[in-house]
Amino acid sequence: MMEETKPANQQLILAIESSCDETAAAIIDQELNVLSSVVASQAEMHSIYGGVVPEIASRAHVQQIIPVIDQAIKQADKTLDDLSAIAVVTEPGLVGSLLVGLTAAKSLSLMLDIPLIAVNHIEAHLYACRMAAGRDIFPAIGLVVSGGHSNIYDCKSAVNYELIGSTIDDAAGEAFDKTAHVLNLPYPGGPSIQKAARDGNPKAFSFPRPMIHSPDLDFSFSGLKTAVLYEVKGKPGKNETPPELTDKRVADISASFQAAVTDLLVKKCQKALKQTGYTRLCIGGGVAANQSLRDRLKEICASLKIELFIAPMEYCTDNAAMAAIAWEHHANGQFAPLDIDVNPGLVRRRS
Ligand code: KG4
Ligand code: ZN
Question: For the chain, what are the domain ranges?
């Protein structure tokens, strides 16, 4: 349930997310109603570099964190005294960025004498699907496709996700960002490529689909990204001048690249569904906002009679509302000690 209701016995979590380049805070009640969700994006600051610069990100989080938390509380029409717990994303992400959110969360938890709950960013991305559904959606296959991750999970329950496939090189979002850079399109690359692809022909270039037929559930996007680079700049060692990068060419390359990524993601999801026998698929993370991917998944899942749960657009890219998974930890009595640290690289493997 996403609509705002205010039951008399309402308990509230303030959730904080600062794992990458978005400073975010949200107020969520125990029924998973999102009372406010504030996101301050740093995309513009990183755009000239074509990707996130960690040092710039952590400095911007320091500037944004208190105003963003303040705004989340104000928008929910609440005060700090109304809060029952503080949730914070502690893993995975950029160490300096995570630390800013965690420090703010610890301070509030200590000051207000309310529990602290640690949230895994990737699990939260998938939980956005559960929130939107308004009911339990597990067991399911979960695909998280973002700037830092391309992972497939066997989601046994809302809090028990086993990693069963991942990228061996770039993440899908990273491939979008790097490809956009090659095409002189602005950062973040995903939305730019999607926009450029609208006028393009997805069959104009037959880019490779690395590992699409491999028996595992792993991905590889690096070869695809390189194929685009060679198409734009020419192959190294060959003395050929590539054709001029016209708008038409950018549109065709974007559409063909997007089609290749979509094929790779859809194929491995199908494989995971077949292997596990599950009939539900949930998808989260920034790349899940891609319209071509959403359309293809809807088509395929309808034909295979698979129940599809895609995170709502506003909860695909990083936000704090998805940290509502903290209510599951709360129900299980899983609170974090005040000396908890961040875990930058950790992707939990559970069985
Ligand atoms: O989940 P997210 O906000 O941050 C991470 O956890 O990494 O994902 C950001 C990534 C970026 O790489 C961005 O290019 C990609 O998501 N993205 C998209 C779209 N919107 C954002 N990729 C493809 N199509 C989109 N519409
Ligand atoms: Zn993310």
Answer: 8-126+317-331, 134-315
